[in-house]
Fold this sequence. Notes:
Elements: E1 3-7, H1 20-26, E2 31-33, H2 42-52, E3 55-60, H3 80-97, E4 101-103, H4 115-134, E5 139-143, H5 158-168, E6 173-178, H6 179-185, H7 189-196, E7 200-205, H8 221-231, E8 236-239, H9 252-258
Parallel strand pairs: 1-2, 1-8, 2-3, 3-4, 4-5, 5-6, 6-7, 7-8
Helix pairs in contact: 1-2, 2-3, 3-4, 4-5, 7-8
Amino acid sequence: MPRFAANLSMMFNEVPFLDRFEAAARAGFSGVEFLFPYEYTPEEVAGKAKDAGVQIVLFNMPAGNWAAGERGVTGLPGREQEFRDNVAKAVTYAKVLGVPRLHAMAGIAPAGADLSACKSTLIANLKYAAAELEKEDMTLLLEAINLRDMPGFLVSTQKDSHAICEAVGAPNMKMQMDLYHMQVMEGDLATSLKKYAPMCGHIQIAGCPERNEPDTGEVRYEYLFQLLDTIGYPGWLGCEYRPAGKTNEGLRWLSAATR
């Protein structure tokens, strides 16, 4: 059975961020992930995870001005030095937190941007990041995000994500396959999981189309969990969903999946 990691940016919002580690542990999670830890020192975050007895499995590199709508700078020409600074900052945190994988958000193309230049920048920056992470035995991840939620996002399909990972050509460059985003853009989840399994470094789940608990909506996750066992997927499943109500009240799916 796959291992489940609570996404603390979306789940357990009933309590402050640093208290969510213990909340996740009490709910039965042994792993956690989140978008960004940079509001706190790495020592603060590491201490909370250690006290709760949970493993931090993933977080994002800094992604530009989030409040202004930026969703990564990896593919934005002219922001290369900022991206390199972001890599250094993320690696510093990951070393303290013991996190083996980092996600670099591709970014949203600015109005009028040259998309070919954005793609070239994206690949060049990912090559740099992969080399830096390889020094620390870390995996670099690239996620395809649906264009309904993030119009203009530079990578929106598994085919594009795979092609970019291939162009980077680094052994520690992998796909982050979010099944919610994949369902919105493409569907045919089982086929894609089988096809891209060798390049898959992390999987995330949520119900679709509302992005609530995975036992809601149009995706039958019970089947997909069994498929991942058959495929032999060794990693975590990040639960990146928005609880429809209080987090603990919606965890019937976790009890059923881990029974």
